[in-house]
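User: I'm curious what two different proteins look like when written out as structure tokens. Can you demonstrate?

Assistant: Sure. I'll show them one after the other, since each token string lines up with its own sequence. Here's the first protein:
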Amino acid sequence: MGRKPRRRMVHWVTFGFNDGSVIACAPERKLSSKRIKEERIYVCPDGVQREYMHKPNELCTWSLEQRIRSCDILSNRLNTRRAIRELVLPEIAALADTLQRIEKRLDAIERYIGDGEAS
């Protein structure tokens, strides 16, 4: 049986807009710790070590193929955000309500037990 492969974080260079939407990315060699320290580079938890930001009005200067690809990526991002907002956030809110009810019950139990020990 072979050895288990080591999993290393992939480091990325990204191209996107100021709102955080990424329209392209490419893997990149991990920068040395010396370079990261000297140039004060922040490597985010996702492994992004360099980001290039574009202004939205630069989109019209790109080739037709680049614009089509960027619009597809941005529409997928928007649809994903909407799906999360509609499907996941209500479930999280329901869990938070349930947790609050449990905390109230626990407080009542603790008060009841505390009153019984005092007498």
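Here's a second, unrelated protein for contrast:
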Amino acid sequence: MSLRQLEKICFTICLVCIVSGTVLSLAMIWLEVTEEEVIRKSWLTILVLFLASALTLSVSKTLGRHHGGSDDA
């Protein structure tokens, strides 16, 4: 897998996390939610996926700079 592909995958995951976080926030505002545990676990899941993708994206960018910008991993 090339670094370019990895960056695209991580960027897509970050975007999905942002969109799902927005949807979850709007649902919390407009819907009556009584299960606090489900909400907390949903937020933590989104946070973990976002952070893992952002860190992977950061590492791939750093490796790309150290290897002369090549797309090969």
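A detail about the second structure: Residues 36-66 form the longest helix (31 residues).
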